[in-house]
């Protein structure tokens, strides 16, 4: 019978999959889109808000730049999509930006990209879930004050779904994602129809004006205007987060992998830019006013007076939906529900990208090897859990406030964009040196031109984002990338040192020891001790002795008498311990034997109880554990644990037998 914990795990995660079932987890394009593109698609739910908030500091007049900022973001988005289509064809193994940078720019650049991407994936989960909770709390007042723990609970749910497997989580998230796409595109289309037919109402905030901040009281001029527009552009560039996830997830696609990934990229880019520009255009047509949610009571004016604390400012999508669907309220509620859900599901992009990238980094020795291991459902379970833990830490630290978390965002993704495009330019240049076929050269030159334009554009955006967001909180993300970069280098140095230590010396490591000196540690005459002695005798060492440490003289005397009565052909040696210690006298004796015969190998046989309950472990084996910990650091000493299963261990043995793997029969090989 499986334990309750095992049954719960099977209920939540599902039955284990065999390794040969990996092909069953591969994704068709219709499922890959919601899995890898939900972050980029959901960004249109808050990117327009950030653009309008930034421009609002200069008053209503600055809103005239909103559509221009939107167009600039669209140009960058399409350029990045076109560039990454080259990436997935050139590097389909799933390393994405990390592989491109490592192959073409060296390991240092690859580590920088990897640290930036890992931080960005963690922020994706924290920002998306926090944004979803904040939107939900506006409709569900009982969530107010509990946003942090609700967000943590949602991360736990997403983690559980992803542990079931990438295909299962994608199938679960596909319908909500497509509902969001349909709702937003439907709102944009219906809004434009109503505008051209003269029936589009104004947004509910159109009646308000905006009080500009003191520095913009005289309008937008000179450097202030340029800086404000650049800040709005960097805020709107949040719409590009998640674009790189598809290049990291190419191995998860069905064959032909590269072509399917490139097609999914194009679909994602087309849908995202259409929704983004549609929302910004509708906001302009409905004369929407949207300011920092913390400043609505002072910045929004009605007849020249602040609206006060009683005004409840809805999100951009909320205001647009109410205006566009004023003649059909069910569509408005459908839009709001789909938007709230997609903000939660946007985190799934990170759950698709982080574990795969972590697995590749672990394979290369930059992260713990455990991240390269697939779990029961053939997903990289350790990476999924690690991502969830880091995201929960951020959510708790920033109290699930997306306005604080959003300032840390974007930096990492543009670091990876820029470095990746640099690597791709070098990739095509290197191939062009040896390629002679004219048609192939033309295709490579076109690809290099696309990546060169992408490099210039993403590099410029990176500078803008760094300048405009550094003091607003982006420095925290940069510091996290730096710490992660140093950590990865430290892990790689450790693995390199271990590999060097373990490299065999054919002459030294194959030489037999001069003798084997076996020692059985005996504290009492009981079944475990007698089994250890019998096993030690069966190994036929050159020297065999039993050793006991004297703590109580009376007990030691009885032990020797019982030993003599049994007539065992093994000499008993008693070590004196004035301070009633066991470990130190035994270690001193081992060292003394080693000094006499340095080429001799000492094998220590240690009897141990095997118990079935955790509390029993506290009552037994403490001396053995301390002694084992010390012996592991003694050179020339081999440690053999001789287990004795107590009756309570039967429950554990039964569980292990229930989960015993099937025997693998290998084909017979004949030597000619």
Q: Can you describe this structure in just a few lines?
A:
The chain is an alpha/beta fold. The chain is 62% helix and 7% strand.
Domain module count? 2
- The CATH class of the largest domain is identified as Mainly Alpha
Seen as an oligomer or otherwise, the chain set is single chain
Q: Largest beta sheet: what is the strand line-up?
A: 6-5-4-7-8
Query: CATH fold name of the largest domain, please?
Result: Amino acid/polyamine transporter I
CATH superfamily of the largest domain: Amino acid/polyamine transporter I
CATH architecture of the largest domain: Up-down Bundle
- Give the structural class: alpha/beta
Q: Please outline the major beta sheet.
A: 5 strands, parallel
- Percentage beta strand: 5-15%
Which consecutive residue ranges, at least 5 long each, have pLDDT under 50? 660-672
Give the terminus-to-terminus CA distance: 49 Å
Rg result: 33 Å
Number of strands: 8
The 3D shape can be described as: elongated
Number of helices: 25
Helical residue percent band: 55-70%
Mean of the pLDDT scores? Answer: 82
Keywords:
Amino acid/polyamine transporter I; alpha/beta; 5-stranded parallel beta sheet; 3-stranded antiparallel beta sheet; single chain; 7% strand; 25 helices; Rossmann fold
Could you walk me through the main structural features you see in this protein, from its secondary elements to its overall organization?
- The longest helix has 65 residues.
- The protein is 62% helix and 7% strand.
- A five-stranded parallel beta sheet has the order 6-5-4-7-8, with helices on both faces. It has a three-stranded antiparallel beta sheet with strand order 1-2-3.
- The radius of gyration is 33 Å and the shape is elongated.
- α20 links the parallel β4 and β5.
- The chain has two domains: 476 residues, Up-down Bundle (Amino acid/polyamine transporter I); 142 residues, 3-Layer(aba) Sandwich (Rossmann fold), CATH 3.40.50.
- With 672 residues, the chain is of the alpha/beta class.
- The C terminus is likely disordered.
């Amino acid at each position: 019978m499986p334990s309750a914990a095992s049954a719960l795990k099977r209920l939540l995660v599902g039955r284990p999959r065999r390794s040969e079932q990996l092909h069953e987890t591969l994704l068709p394009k219709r499922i890959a889109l919601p899995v890898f593109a939900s972050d980029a698609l959901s960004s249109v739910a808050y990117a327009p808000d950030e653009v309008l908030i930034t421009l609002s500091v200069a008053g209503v007049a600055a809103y005239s730049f909103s559509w221009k900022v939107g167009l600039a973001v669209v140009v960058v988005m399409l350029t990045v999509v076109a560039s990454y289509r080259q990436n997935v064809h050139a590097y389909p193994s799933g390393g994405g930006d990390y592989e491109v940078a490592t192959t073409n720019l060296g390991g240092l650049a690859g580590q920088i990209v990897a640290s930036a991407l890992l931080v960005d994936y963690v922020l994706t989960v924290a920002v998306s879930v926090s944004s979803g909770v904040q939107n939900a709390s506006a409709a569900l007042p009982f969530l107010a004050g509990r946003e942090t723990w609700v967000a943590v609970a949602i991360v736990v749910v997403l983690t559980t779904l992803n542990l079931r497997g990438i295909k299962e989580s994608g199938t679960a998230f596909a319908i909500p994602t497509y509902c969001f796409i349909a709702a937003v595109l439907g709102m944009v289309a219906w809004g434009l129809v109503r505008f051209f037919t003269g029936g589009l109402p104004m947004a509910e905030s159109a009646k308000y004006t905006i009080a500009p901040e003191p520095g913009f009281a005289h309008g937008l001029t000179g450097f202030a205007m340029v800086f404000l527009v650049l800040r709005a552009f960097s805020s709107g560039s949040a719409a590009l987060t998640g674009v790189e996830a598809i290049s990291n997830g190419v191995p998860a696609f069905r064959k032909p992998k590269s072509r399917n990934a490139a097609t999914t990229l194009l679909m994602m880019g087309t849908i995202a830019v259409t929704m983004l520009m549609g929302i910004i255009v509708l906001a302009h047509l409905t004369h929407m006013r949207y300011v920092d949610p913390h400043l609505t009571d002072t910045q929004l004016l009605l007849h020249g007076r602040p609206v006060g604390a009683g005004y409840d400012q809805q999100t951009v999508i909320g205001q647009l939906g109410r205006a566009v669907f004023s003649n059909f309220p069910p569509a408005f509620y459908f839009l709001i529900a789909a938007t709230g859900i997609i903000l939660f599901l946007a985190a799934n992009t990170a759950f698709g990208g982080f574990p795969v990238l972590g697995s590749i980094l672990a394979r290369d020795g930059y992260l713990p090897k455990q991240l390269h291991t697939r779990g029961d459902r053939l997903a990289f379970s350790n990476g999924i859990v690690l991502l969830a833990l880091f995201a929960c830490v951020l959510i708790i630290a920033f109290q699930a406030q997306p306005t604080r978390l959003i300032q840390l965002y974007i930096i990492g993704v543009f670091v990876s964009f820029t470095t990746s495009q640099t690597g791709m330019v070098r990739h095509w240049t290197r191939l062009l040196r040896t390629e002679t076929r004219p048609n192939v050269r033309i295709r490579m030159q076109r690809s290099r031109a696309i990546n060169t334009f992408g490099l210039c554009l993403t590099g410029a955006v990176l500078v803008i984002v760094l300048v405009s967001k550094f003091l607003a909180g982006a420095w925290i993300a940069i510091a996290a990338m730096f710490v992660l970069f140093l950590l990865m280098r430290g892990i790689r140095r450790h693995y390199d040192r271990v590999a060097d230590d373990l490299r065999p010396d054919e002459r030294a490591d194959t030489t037999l020891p001069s003798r084997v000196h076996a020692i059985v540690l005996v504290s009492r005459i009981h079944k475990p001790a007698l089994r250890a002695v019998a096993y030690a005798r069966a190994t036929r060492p050159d020297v065999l002795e039993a050793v006991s440490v004297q703590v109580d003289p009376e007990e030691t005397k009885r032990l020797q008498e019982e030993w003599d009565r049994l007539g065992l052909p093994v000499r008993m040696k008693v070590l004196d311990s004035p301070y009633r210690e066991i470990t130190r006298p035994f270690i001193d004796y081992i060292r003394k034997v080693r000094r006499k015969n340095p080429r001799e190998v000492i094998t220590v046989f240690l009897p141990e109880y095997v118990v079935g309950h955790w509390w029993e472990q506290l009552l037994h084996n403490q001396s053995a554990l301390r002694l084992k910990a010390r012996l592991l650091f003694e050179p020339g000493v081999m440690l053999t644990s001789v287990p004795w299963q107590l009756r309570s261990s039967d429950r554990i043995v039964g569980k292990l037998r229930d989960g015993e793997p099937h025997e693998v029969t290998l084909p017979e090989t004949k030597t000619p």
